[in-house]
Amino acid sequence: MKKLEHSLKTFMFNFVIILFLLIHFAGSERVRAKVSPPTFDLKLINNGTSVEITIHPTENVDGYQLYMRTIKCPAYDKYRIGISSRVGGTEKKMVYTINILPPGEYSFYVVGVKHEPYSYYGLPSYDSIEVTRSTEKTITIKEYKEERKEKNYDFTNTKVGDTIAFGAYEQDGDFSNGKEVIEWIVIGKKRDKILVLSKFALDCIGYDMNGRRKWEKSTSRKWLNSYFYETAFTKNEQKMIKLSKINNPANQETGVKGGVPTKDKVFLLSINEVKKYISPDVDENMLLCKCLPTKYAEFQKEHDFYGDLYRHDNDNWWYLRTPGAKSLKNESVINQSGYISSYGEFVANNGYIRPAMWIRIKK
Asked: Average pLDDT, stretch 223-239?
């Protein structure tokens, strides 16, 4: 009798599972009914520095998802994978413009989706199920060519706390009007040189995309001393930037070693340098520690390297070069309140970058 009862229970259990699977796949097949692939056009605008995407209507879909991946982008080398953006509505053609892409080669495709309703803890919701996909199209964003006149600088009378203009970098998110002059805050001065920190966060990248915490091997160090250095400064300006010995002491709070000394033109501040030059414990210096990103940097923060669109409201932390938490692959940061976070953030997370460097007082 017990064997019969067990067999019936097993039969009923299997029957329910099979019935559930049949209903599920029947619904999925309904959602995944074949439809025509979406079509779209790519067009360069603003003298070839921006791209306009026009998506044409497709029947039997509830919305579209526009995807972009980076094929080649000198600004981020292999470390920037791409962005995605969801686009809704299907009744008429949609025009989507991207103005804030660094020069490079990009690939786009469009996915058509159906909305499959379901209940989430009693609340109505839906999944976006891909039912069709376009072919990929590639396009190249050109670099805006501008001739910056060489300038003679003299910072002899510059004092700590002053703001100076030096170099240029994309900041307003419009590549077609050229780069904007970089503002620097003077945070230190010696006999023949001044130490400057960018007033605004100029970009947003991972500290190291390979999970390494030590400054000498980080991808951010390579980026600062190659792409940023070559892009932001003229030949004369480059000659004014001193090649400095950069000490990398351990994180005194977490005990993680900082690595060997390096020689760099451009660098990120260490915890020790923050305490020495812009201590967040002093109220009058809090504005130096709090991070204000440029429009261009903010765009890079919103589109993280995993390829998804995120909002980081009130999350304006910026990277230091001192390793963070001992048990994690973290790098120390200045948090959104302007205080040192010794435990920091995961090294591959997109974080704001405020370059620092020693500049000769005059050429």
From this structure: 94
pLDDT at 308: 38
Please tell me the number of Cα atoms within 13 Å of 303 on its side-chain side: 22
Are 259 and 322 in a shared domain? yes
> Does residue 126 contact residue 115 with C-beta atoms inside 8 Å?
yes
Output the pTM of the full model.
Answer: 0.75
Length of the chain in terms of residues written: 363
Q: Is 276 in the same domain as 317?
A: yes
Q: Is residue 146 part of a domain?
A: no
Main-chain phi, psi angles of 198, to 5 degrees:
-60, 135
Residues 27/101, Cβ–Cβ less than 8 Å:
no
**pLDDT at site 310:** 39
Closest CA relative to residue 314, chosen from 342, 284, 335: 335
What does the alpha-carbon distance between residue 305 and residue 351 come to, in Å, rounded to a whole number? 11
Domain-terminating residue out of 109, 141, 173: 141
What is the Cα–Cα distance from 235 to 211, expressed in whole angstroms? 33
What is the SS3 assignment for 71-124? EECCCCCCCCCEEEEEEECCCCCEEEEECCCCCEEEEEEEEEEEEEEEEECCEE
Q: What value, to the nearest 5°, has the Cα angle with vertex 350 and ends 346 and 351?
A: 85
Among residues 141, 174, 209, the one where a domain terminates is 141
Q: Positive or negative, the Cα torsion across 222, 227, 231, 236?
A: positive
User: Into how many domains does the chain fold?
Assistant: 2
User: Rg of the Cα trace of the chain?
Assistant: 26
